[in-house]
């Protein structure tokens, strides 16, 4: 009995330690995550004023349906997502498969090279890209396409090419993380599967089709879902490179919310838009898990 | 590697295939590295030289004038770097300690409400940043009135949810026996954490520290919102103000960008293993 009591005390003592250990995390979480989320919900029903906001019910949300710019921003974000995320998956998977058979030091070298842009700051790199897309004939990209006989383009300055320029920028860099994750997943495939396939005389592409791609499905799903979530929140490139222009051809939802909040000080509208964005992201994520993840177990 | 083996093991065709794949990898690597290369070579050009000359792919000449120009241009150039260093260091230390502690509590200590709290933490990771940004700004700038202070830069990031998750994932794999035996020896939980768990979790805490430091060094958005006073800005925000100051000062801007990137490159190349590991840790178990 006595031992039982002692054990009880020890566990009770643990309760208190548990709370002590998470105290700071919990305070920070409540203050800077939980409170803002609740507050966003409240602000979205208000016309926000620093001193005394007025309650306007669903007006902020109703306005969104009629807001052409919001619809356009969603369309732009969708286009950006559809053209970046799958392309990034294909590129990183291909690169990972190419890196995988190399010697260890080469693997590490290529992994480091592809990851390097993630280490540099987005502000610095976007300034470089601005220069690459310089609309003058001396601009790097214009020089390059000049060799191919294509005439001078006003890359970021024309609504015809502005979105393409942002897409091109994302295609050419920023796959480091996905490549490394794919390589790690490739390493996890048991050698015996390939040996068995060899006995059946499977070619490289057959092995790719029937072993590697199905077994890497959880990884692909993970990268797809996180990629789409990230892409829907994209802000930096549009903000730094085009400012959403020209003619709002590159205004993404993330940028629109930023502008509504911090340029036009319409916090209520911004909050409503951000919650709609959260809902869209949640629905798409659930959709992806439901339709692609039916045979994936975690 | 029998993923790549073939029936007709013709060594010549294997060699060719290998060469082709390496060439593809190098071409793609060149695209990836190009902006960084261009940033670095441009930073050694003359500070005031607009137009065609600054577009050349090979350095015309090497001079440090642009670096001097960068530091002279704004009285706060050095301060920006110092600010970034202070903010990133405080946030990193705090995360290692507090996210580490919370991770341990969620992994190994039993207390009521544990699962509910952890689920709540996990769910919050799915909320887009845009939802939080507006109220967070109002809270820090209008309610607390602490804009243009280190507190405003540091506070929201002191204990990242993702870091708690990383720590918990790793610490769950430590055996209960060591904790039990430490208890029998008379250690309390704080002693167990500092003397046993902390040393055993060094790798994951290092990964966490590096990723957190990098994130905070490179972060632009939050410091941009809460600092209007140039003396309190971080290097990323400073760089942006530089950009709009005068668009013809390309080389000095690139010098600033190189200075901003340099500490990260050094950190990356000396601690590469942890960086590359850090990418995978969150994903594979996620």
Q: Rg of chain A from C-alpha positions? A: 25 Å
Tell me the number of structural domains of chain A: 2
Largest chain-chain contact? A-B, 108 and 100 residues
Looking at CATH, the homologous superfamily of the largest domain in chain B is: MetI-like
Mean pLDDT of chain B equals: 86
- By CATH, the architecture of the largest domain in chain A is named Orthogonal Bundle
- What oligomeric state do these chains adopt? heterodimer
Q: State the secondary-structure class of chain B.
A: mainly alpha
Domain count of chain B: the total is 2
Terminal CA distance of chain B reads 27 Å
Write the H/E string of chain A, N to C.
HEEHHHHHHHHHHHHH
Cα Rg of chain B: 24 Å
What is the helix fraction of residues of chain A, given as a range? over 70%
Number of helices of chain A: 14
Number of E strands of chain A: 2
Structural class of chain A: mainly alpha
CATH class division of the largest domain in chain B: Mainly Alpha
Pfam families (chain A): BPD_transp_1
Keywords (chain A): Cell membrane, Membrane, Transmembrane, Transmembrane helix, Transport
Membrane topology (chain A): Multi-pass membrane protein
Main location (chain A): membrane
Task: Offer a concise description of the structure.
Chain A: It is found in: Cell membrane. Chain A is an all-alpha fold and 298 residues long.
Written account of the structure:
- The complex is a heterodimer of chains A (298) and B (286).
- Chain A has 14 helices and two strands, in the order αββααααααααααααα.
- By secondary structure, chain A is mainly α.
- Chain A folds into two domains: 2-43; 59-292, MetI-like (MetI-like fold, Orthogonal Bundle), CATH 1.10.3720.
- Chain B folds into two domains: 11-67, no CATH class; 75-245, Orthogonal Bundle (MetI-like fold), CATH 1.10.3720.10.
- The longest helix of chain B is centred in the N-terminal third of the chain and has 32 residues, at 11-42.
- Chains A and B meet through α1, α3, α4, α5 and α8 of A and α1, α3, α4, α5 and α9 of B.
- Chain A: It is found in: Cell membrane.
- Chain A: The chain crosses the membrane at residues 16-45, 78-100, 112-132, 164-189, 210-236, 274-292.
- Chain A: Belongs to the binding-protein-dependent transport system permease family.
- Chain A: Residues 74-288 form the ABC transmembrane type-1 domain.
């Amino acid at each position: 009995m006595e031992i039982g009591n002692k054990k009880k005390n020890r566990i009770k003592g643990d309760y208190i330690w548990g709370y002590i250990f998470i105290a700071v995390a919990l305070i920070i979480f409540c203050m800077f995550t939980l409170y803002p989320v609740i507050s966003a919900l409240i602000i979205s029903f208000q016309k926000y004023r620093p001193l005394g906001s007025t309650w306007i019910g669903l007006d902020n949300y109703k306005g969104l349906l009629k807001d052409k710019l919001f619809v356009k921003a969603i369309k732009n974000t969708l286009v950006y997502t559809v053209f970046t995320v799958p392309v990034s998956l294909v590129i990183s998977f291909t690169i990972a498969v190419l890196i995988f058979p190399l010697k260890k030091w080469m693997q590490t070298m290529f992994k480091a090279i592809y990851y390097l842009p993630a280490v540099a700051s987005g502000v610095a790199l976007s300034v470089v890209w601005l220069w690459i897309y310089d609309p003058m004939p001396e601009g790097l990209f214009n020089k390059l396409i000049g060799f191919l006989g294509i005439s001078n383009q006003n890359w970021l300055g024309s609504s015809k090419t502005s979105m393409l320029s942002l897409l091109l920028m994302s295609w050419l860099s920023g796959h480091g993380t996905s490549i490394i994750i794919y390589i790690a997943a490739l390493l996890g495939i048991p050698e015996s599967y390939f040996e068995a396939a060899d006995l059946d005389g499977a070619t490289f592409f057959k092995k790719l089709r029937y072993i590697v791609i199905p077994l890497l499905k959880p990884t692909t799903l993970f990268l797809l879902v996180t990629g789409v979530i990230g892409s829907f929140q994209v802000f930096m490139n549009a903000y730094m490179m085009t400012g959403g222009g020209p003619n709002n051809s590159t205004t993404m939802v993330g940028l629109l919310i930023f502008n509504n909040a911090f340029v036009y000080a319409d916090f209520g509208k911004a909050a409503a838009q951000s919650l709609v964005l959260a809902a869209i992201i949640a629905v798409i994520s659930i959709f992806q898990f439901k339709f692609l993840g039916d045979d994936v177990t975690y | 590697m029998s993923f790549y083996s073939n029936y007709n093991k013709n060594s010549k065709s294997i060699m060719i295939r290998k060469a082709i794949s390496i060439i593809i990898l190098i071409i793609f690597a060149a695209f990836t590295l190009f902006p960084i290369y261009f940033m670095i070579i441009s930073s050694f050009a003359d500070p005031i030289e607009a137009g065609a000359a600054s577009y050349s792919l090979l350095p015309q000449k090497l001079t440090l004038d642009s670096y001097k120009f960068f530091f002279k241009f704004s009285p706060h150039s050095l301060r920006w770097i110092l600010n970034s260093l202070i903010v990133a260091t405080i946030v990193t230390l705090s995360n290692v300690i507090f996210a580490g502690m919370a991770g341990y509590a969620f992994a190994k200590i039993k207390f009521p409400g544990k699962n509910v709290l952890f689920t709540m933490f996990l769910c919050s990771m799915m909320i887009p940043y845009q939802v939080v940004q507006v109220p967070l700004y109002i809270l820090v700038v209008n309610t607390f009135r602490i804009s243009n202070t280190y507190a405003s830069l540091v506070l929201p990031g002191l204990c990242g949810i993702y870091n708690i998750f990383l720590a918990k994932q790793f610490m769950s794999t430590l055996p209960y026996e060591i904790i039990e035996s430490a208890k029998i020896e008379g250690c309390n939980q704080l002693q167990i954490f500092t003397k046993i768990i902390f040393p055993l979790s060094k790798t994951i805490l290092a990964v966490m520290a590096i990723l957190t430091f990098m994130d905070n060094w490179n972060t632009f958005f939050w410091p941009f919102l809460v600092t209007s006073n140039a003396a309190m800005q971080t290097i990323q925000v400073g760089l942006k103000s530089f950009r709009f100051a005068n668009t013809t000062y390309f080389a000095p801007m690139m010098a600033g960008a190189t200075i901003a990137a340099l500490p990260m490159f050094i950190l990356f190349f000396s601690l590469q293993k942890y960086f590359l590991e850090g990418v995978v840790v969150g994903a594979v178990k996620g």
